[in-house]
Amino acid sequence: MKRGPTRRVMDGVQKALRSMVPREENFFILFQRAAENAAKGAYVLQGLLDGEIEPGEAVKQIEAAEHEGDNITHETVRRLNATFMTPAMFEREDILRVADALDDIVDMTHAAVERYALYELTEPTPAAKRLGELLVESTEELHAIMQQLDKISPESSEYCVKVNQLENEGDTVLKAGLADLFRGTPDPIYVLKWKEIYENIEEAIDSCEDTVNEIEAAVVKNA
To answer: What span, in angstroms and rounded, lies between the C-alpha atoms of 175 and 169?
Structure first.
């Protein structure tokens, strides 16, 4: 859809203002903090599934990560409300969408850890462990992307590729894991417990992909 004259004029004014007013780069730092926090949450889940962290301790650690994520999101909103100019590649709604997607990663990781402890599970399935590994890889990749955010250009999409590949593998592992759960004559309660945890982890991986998709959309839109 073509932009009307008024919209083009406003875009021109906004770009001119951005060229004259110093950029507010603190949002990049907040994104880095949020991505690092998401990775910490993923490590907690992986440690739980690998038997390296006790359930009670894992819940304590993931609750701390969720609290930190909420604080970062609130700080993002506070700074956004107090800032006249946002970074050139992001409008206000773009920043909010990225912040929300990052926060969703920790929320869904928290749900998986909490359910595992609540259901008193002790032997992780291969699918759960693989999903946990994929979440760690996704959050690590996301953290690396955030550290290079100011160098991303509209012509580049390489930063999205790895996260998208990991999300696709997560979908495959989820489907295969669910098939394994339902194979034979399984205990329905056991199936429901693991199904919920699988889906929580997969949603966390999805949120990693949502984050890079929001970044890509903002970069292209504001080029």
So the answer is: 10
Domain ranges of the chain: 23-221
pTM of the model: 0.86
Residue-wise pLDDT for 188-198, tens only, equals: 999 999 999 99
The three-point CA angle 27-132-143 to 5° equals 20
Q: What is the rounded CA–CA span in Å between residue 23 and residue 183?
A: 56
State pLDDT tens for residues 17-47.
Answer: 444 444 455 888 999 999 999 999 999 999 9
Helical axes 26-49 vs 92-118, angle rounded to 10°: 20
At the second CATH level, the architecture of 23-221 is Up-down Bundle (1.20)
